[in-house]
Design a protein that fits this description.
Blueprint lengths: L6 H9 L2 H22 L4 E6 L1 E9 L7 E7 L2 E8 L2 H10 L3 E2 L32
Antiparallel strand pairs: 1-2, 1-5, 2-3, 3-4
Helix pairs in contact: 1-2, 2-3
């Protein structure tokens, strides 16, 4: 579900200053960009805040949750989180500082060293689409 900022929220953020309002707007835009990518079947993301990392959304390997986001640095897997909805996945991806990336720009997820012991059914996992 895409997010918008209401007039009431805009006034509240503006009360705390224009910088706070601008940050809130930027966060909503980032969330919407991530969510759109997910509903369009684009499951690869990157983080480039000092240390380059890539992440991939795929079915939860335990089957307890619907989705899992696993992320990697040049040395291999460094973490993951599991969520039940694409909305929750998008919120967490945003909070972790990842942004959508084009599959052809993938560096780490194509590296046998980075993903050597990581097991998923296939690199481009077909996930069941949620209702928009």
């Amino acid at each position: 579900m895409l997010k918008t900022i209401t007039e009431k929220e805009r006034k509240m953020y503006l009360f705390f200053g224009e910088e706070v309002l601008n940050q809130a707007i930027e966060n909503i835009e980032n969330y919407n960009r991530i969510y759109r990518s997910l509903i369009n079947g684009e499951f690869v993301f990157k983080q480039d805040n000092g240390f380059y990392r890539e992440g991939l959304v795929h079915p939860d390997s335990t089957g307890v949750f619907k989705y899992q986001f696993s992320f990697f640095d040049k040395y291999g897997p460094i973490g993951d989180f599991k969520r039940d909805t694409l909305k929750e996945v998008a919120e967490s991806i945003m909070e972790y500082g990842y942004i959508p990336m084009l599959e052809e720009d993938v560096q780490l997820l194509n590296s046998s060293e980075a993903v050597a012991d990581f097991k998923i059914p296939s690199f481009y996992c077909p996930l069941i689409k949620e209702k928009k």
